[in-house]
Specification:
Blueprint: H1 3-26, H2 29-56, H3 63-99
Helix pairs in contact: 1-2, 1-3, 2-3
Length: about 100
């Protein structure tokens, strides 16, 4: 397996993990539909350009693929930070409700 395939799988797995954490913290059906749409928006450009790169084997550097990786990494980090914030809020709310 090439380095590109490994890096693409790892990037998409981190993005999926971030959104799974958000799913587990919200548990709201309407929000989950929106989160699935946001997950597709975050992962689709990288998947498309990675598949295109593997099939087309460009001679020069594929700047679009690099931009897709950067977009997905930034998107994943933002989703991960939001997931951590939501989980901490949920944990605090559970602790406060148990104390009362």
């Amino acid at each position: 397996m090439s380095n590109l395939v490994t890096l693409t799988i790892a990037t998409e797995a981190f993005l999926l993990l971030s959104f799974i954490m958000i799913f587990l913290s919200t548990r709201n059906t309407k929000k989950n539909v929106l989160l699935v749409i946001l997950l597709i928006i975050g992962g689709a450009p990288l998947l498309y350009l990675a598949i295109d790169h593997v099939n087309s084997e460009y001679v020069d550097a594929n700047i679009g693929l690099g931009i897709a990786f950067m977009f997905t990494w930034i998107y994943s980090v933002i989703a991960f930070i939001i997931a951590i914030i939501l989980l901490v809020k949920k944990k605090r709310n559970n602790n406060i409700s148990k104390e009362q």
